[in-house]
Specification:
By secondary structure, the protein is mainly alpha-helical. Helices cover about 50% and strands about 10% of the residues. The chain is built from seven helices and two strands, in the order E-E-H-H-H-H-H-H-H. A two-stranded antiparallel sheet has the order 1-2.
Length: about 140
């Protein structure tokens, strides 16, 4: 996109901050241009966040029923999916999928738990704890 095409919506979508985007200047060189936001981007980001919140709520129910491990809830609560968590930890997707099962998760070694916790930005104790109950009125 050219520097004069960088979105500058009237409403500031970044809480008054500006976001740097790459654009092509008149000489054809890439440079960073500040953007106050773009309604389309804000809408899509909001939809993605809502989807992760929905998945976290569903995972909370599965964990409470004993159908899934707390890892699944924390993965979605931290806005990650299985491929992202696998890439962040360096584990194979199939092994991460296995660790979402409560029986497999209960047998994980401390070093593996630490790698999950580090990737999610939480402590091992938090990772091993079932998610809290949803507040009243939330999904």
């Amino acid at each position: 996109m050219r520097e004069d095409e960088v979105p500058q919506d009237e409403v500031a979508y970044y809480g008054g901050a500006r976001k740097a985007l790459y654009a092509v200047d008149r000489q054809g060189h890439y440079e960073t241009v500040a953007s106050s936001g773009w309604a389309v981007e804000a809408t899509v980001t909001g939809d993605a966040i809502a989807e992760f919140e929905r998945r976290a709520a569903a995972a909370r129910v599965r964990v409470a029923r004993g159908e899934s491990s707390p890892l699944e809830f924390h993965m979605y609560a931290r806005r990650m999916d299985l491929p992202t968590l696998a890439q962040s930890t360096g584990f194979w997707r199939c092994s991460v999928r296995r660790d979402l099962r409560p029986d497999a998760f209960a047998r994980l070694r401390p070093a593996r738990l630490r790698r999950y916790a580090d990737a999610l930005g939480i402590g091992v104790e938090v990772l091993q704890t079932p998610p809290p109950e949803a507040p009243p009125g939330s999904p």
